[in-house]
Design brief:
Four copies of one chain form a homotetramer.
Chain A: H1 5-20, E1 29-35, E2 40-43, E3 59-62, E4 67-69, H2 78-87, E5 93-97, H3 100-107, H4 117-120, E6 129-130, H5 135-139, H6 142-156, E7 166-169, E8 173-178, H7 181-204, H8 213-224
Parallel strand pairs in A: 6-7
Antiparallel strand pairs in A: 1-2, 1-5, 2-3, 3-4, 5-8, 7-8
Helix pairs in contact in A: 2-6, 3-7
Chain lengths: 235, 235, 235, 235
Amino acid sequence: MGNYKTLKEEVYEANMQLPRLGLVLYSFGNASAVDRNKGVFGIKPSGVPYAELRPEDVVICDFNGKPIDGNRRPSSDTKTHAVLYKEYDAIGGVVHTHSTYATAWAQALKDIPVFGTTHADYLITDIPCALPMKDDYIQGDYEHMTGYQIFDCLKERKLDYKEVQMILVGSHGPFTWGTTVGKAVYHSAVCEEVAKMAYLTLQINPDALPLKDTLKRKHFDRKHGKDAYYGQGCR
Amino acid sequence: MGNYKTLKEEVYEANMQLPRLGLVLYSFGNASAVDRNKGVFGIKPSGVPYAELRPEDVVICDFNGKPIDGNRRPSSDTKTHAVLYKEYDAIGGVVHTHSTYATAWAQALKDIPVFGTTHADYLITDIPCALPMKDDYIQGDYEHMTGYQIFDCLKERKLDYKEVQMILVGSHGPFTWGTTVGKAVYHSAVCEEVAKMAYLTLQINPDALPLKDTLKRKHFDRKHGKDAYYGQGCR
Amino acid sequence: MGNYKTLKEEVYEANMQLPRLGLVLYSFGNASAVDRNKGVFGIKPSGVPYAELRPEDVVICDFNGKPIDGNRRPSSDTKTHAVLYKEYDAIGGVVHTHSTYATAWAQALKDIPVFGTTHADYLITDIPCALPMKDDYIQGDYEHMTGYQIFDCLKERKLDYKEVQMILVGSHGPFTWGTTVGKAVYHSAVCEEVAKMAYLTLQINPDALPLKDTLKRKHFDRKHGKDAYYGQGCR
Amino acid sequence: MGNYKTLKEEVYEANMQLPRLGLVLYSFGNASAVDRNKGVFGIKPSGVPYAELRPEDVVICDFNGKPIDGNRRPSSDTKTHAVLYKEYDAIGGVVHTHSTYATAWAQALKDIPVFGTTHADYLITDIPCALPMKDDYIQGDYEHMTGYQIFDCLKERKLDYKEVQMILVGSHGPFTWGTTVGKAVYHSAVCEEVAKMAYLTLQINPDALPLKDTLKRKHFDRKHGKDAYYGQGCR
């Protein structure tokens, strides 16, 4: 696997977690990881079932989404990943799935409200739903523009990509990221669980109110604040 | 298994995927595959549990649904499969299940609206629900007429069976097809997942709008259009 | 296991299917089978987790629910099973579970309407919900009276226990039966699946109509009528 | 593992049951068990995935939640457990999860009504939802005050912690307890199943009524009353 052996194995492992976590059916998803020193990222090949995927199938691309190593065609969503790596310096991995509940919220074109501490343990705002882009963008360089659909949504809402690490692409499905691809996978699983809980909350109480600010702050800070006391101190 | 060994094994393998994909309970489903050269198709025997099914149990039938090889009685839905093979030249396999969410839509007598790109990756129209047939057809050659219930529904809506490869038989459940039985199974799994997502979308937002046309077209074409760039180029 | 070895093994196997089918949590369910020649039935011991259950733990009781063989205390629902064996000559097995969707209908005190052919393949009426009994019956010989709650419900509705082999005990959960305990287990799984589909049908279309009579009749008769053509002819 | 080997193993085993029962995603939960003679309890370390947890990772704490043995940082919810052990003499174990349906009820800020006998087999009142505490408590010694949020809720409603062994912490999720940690785990699984059934009951019948008093009493007493006849007499 030449120069990219470690990166390909990391991308392979991350992709293989997606079906195990129940986040993908067939090939409906893709994970990528970046090597900032080399200025490349590795991504799942397009349309290859997880059961047949091997580390050597991972495609290495530059930040324009152009393949530079590997025998396969990269994921059709490659340019979206490329934009995120280019615009967001601090991220190490990106994951896209069509996980059932998060996708339903994306199809409903609704942000996922913060109803509880499970959500606030990860972010203190709603999970934003980026509305579909204009027709000429869709008809143009679609996957590239999907990257900017995400970028523009966070920017307009004045959200920091280091704090909000998951988003719904309207009518499509969730994208998540993290400092490593492992954390991006983790955020995909959290996003799906939070999406399911929020759906059920509204079914039980259509007038459910958002979590109060003090609880949002408390839960986020105990995991991610400067005096965080969750975990073993090495997150 | 005589002249039909390969066909029987293909049908056996396809049927065995149905319980693994969570699409059938007990014997609630059947898959068939055609051999166009010999003018026959193989289908699951009626009422045999998947755990006991063997390749040699597959029944070979002609395009009138008449068994011509095998020791078992074929699926009670055999004549429906026969009509589809007779009317639709290009299909290689047919699958029928009572998968939970797709069946619920069929029972609700509702088409499944295109709410997102997961759906548009496969078809750009609603998944049609063919309304129940007239009483004298039900009391007559029921399973044969079910084939024409499907055929007539597509015809009336001016839909092409090569583009719309899944349908709901009203009050009953989904039928899917494809150029191979493997693809027909795949479409059954996609139909169930799309049915679940559409159900959840309407629960979250009862006023959810259909996917915009440009997104429908983009997603369908990137997988199935003449310049498709999804997959490894051999779909 | 003395005189009842075969019966105990049959009851053991049937009980062990319940967790595998996802119909019970912990010890929330029980299956029994009858030996009409000996005038006894075997039933699961009370409160024993499935993981620890052994064939020799099965308790043999007479038709008054009195234990006559075995070292364990029988299921707390034993007298309900006893009433069903006494009143319904043709049944060979009885199963009670708290399976999630069927129990939700029982708690909602609603019959499960016939919305589709999956239901009509087994019975052509709604799955009846027997309303809770009078307070003095509850405070009296409760489990014995639960048997008569079932018996009276079918009688009042003029339903034949040979055609309607599943019922919801209101506020409690489903009971099913069959000519063998294997068929009673099968009916419990069908009841749960039909309950889930009917729930989803009403969520998708609150005005969903019952299945038309011709379809009810057609599907029931092709499996159970005198000219049935479903299965391999030995049901 | 020094003086606490047995306690650590008991806590380890209880924690490992949570993912097997489908009650936790990643590290979203914690189980603890007490040794009353030594005046300590063992609890899961904070943020450690279940797949990596080992018995020696369990942290031993005093009743103020202060770690006194072990190399890991204890669960961030440790002080909540500590309060429950201090205030409730008769409990041997405490479990906290973010199980999906119970958490949805907590997020909806609704008590779970007693709709059926599955619920009444364990408690005859609604499962209480303790409303979120005042802002200064949240900003102060939050996890300690969460213990008193639970304690005060039971006290205000005049509920006995020996009869009501499960509660929803509003906007957060369920806490359960029992005479042993094994029973606390069991109550977490029951709470989740009862939460799911109650949710479905209200979806099927928004006007569903609570279980009648005689049925509540009958079911609770046959399992827990002085003349209980459920189980093998050694609960």
